[in-house]
Amino acid sequence: MLIDTLRETHDLDDAALLDLLATDRYDDALRAAADAVRRESYGTDVYVRGLIEFTNYCKNDCYYCGIRRSNGAAARYRLTEDEILACCREGHALGFRTFVLQGGEDPYFTDDRVCQIVGDIRAAFPDCAITLSIGEKSRESYQRFFDAGADRYLLRHETANEAHYAMLHPSDLSGAHRKACLYTLRDIGYQVGAGIMVGSPGQTLAHIVEDIRFLQDLRPDMIGIGPFLPHKDTPFKDAPSGSLALTLRLLGVLRLLFPGVLLPATTALGTIHPRGREMGLQWGANVLMPNLSPVGVRDKYLLYDNKICTGEESAQCKDCLSRRVASVGYQIVTSRGDSLRVQRGGQ
Ligand code: SAH
What we know:
- The protein is 44% helix and 12% strand.
- By secondary structure, the chain is α/β, with parallel strands linked by helices.
- The protein has a single domain, classed as TIM Barrel (Alpha-Beta Barrel), CATH 3.20.20.70.
- Helix 3 crosses helix 10 (244-257).
- The model has no long low-confidence stretch (mean pLDDT 97).
- The protein binds S-adenosyl-L-homocysteine (SAH).
- S-adenosyl-L-homocysteine (SAH) is lined by residues 64-65, 102, 104-105, 133-135, 155-156, 158, 197, 226, 228-229, 231, 268, 303-304.
């Protein structure tokens, strides 16, 4: 049957993928197979990344995003380098061995400033992975960040379909350029994360199949997916949220298509349902990205409404997460948490 074929061949034709995504008919078998494969690849380990949302200034105007340039209601902030390093120190003491610096595309953070910050984190925490998630840059910039010590880069492609991309973004942004950035990052030697929002306005299941084909070509180390959630001060404020069921189903499909990939159970998944992240882990996800940002700015990095964990201290967050992870039979580990491809030294 479909799930066995997917599990054995790590592929399906378009019609079979559409069939799988369209109904809940295969859900029990899909979830069981995804969890089995996740255990073959990663056991019951859950990798954690400390997320530092260091600026919510952004020069882009993505229609779905709460920190888009045109949102005059957003209270803007940027962290100083000292504040960023303090987050890393706190995170390191809590057992984090990956720091993710995420932000809007903020021109204040020039390449020189980014390199300075990355270099200082690299020197202070030689046992940690440094991940950047700061959008589309030139090859030269990506190379400079890499040379300064960054090892990973998250850049969701958002959608592989150019017409759909144009529904989500103003015309100065293109899907082709975003994809080209991902190939450049891979080429430089970064561990790369791509991904999409599930249920973004205008998205069809056929688009998701196109996303899968793109991912099969790119072969990223990580695939970040979470439901689209509306933000009240964006053009998509009245658009419906993405579906929990489809997000989980897609996690399961991705685990079977890419047995060794890193799959985060995202904050958006935890926002759409109180136990969404736990369910994500049961559907094949093996990564969590709790917030390490200072409490004072957490309620300002709002990409969508009702974001969770905006009030807690990092240590509280870690305890809460450990309990949640244990409640579904997995455990958080203290390690860099490289993808299987990297652990095996492969390309
Ligand atoms: N500026 C960086 C970081 C973007 S924020 C970059 O360009 O990559 C990280 C991700 O949050 C985005 O890639 C997007 O997929 C997701 N996101 C943004 N707005 C969202 C929303 N309203 N609902 C759910 N996810 C959203």
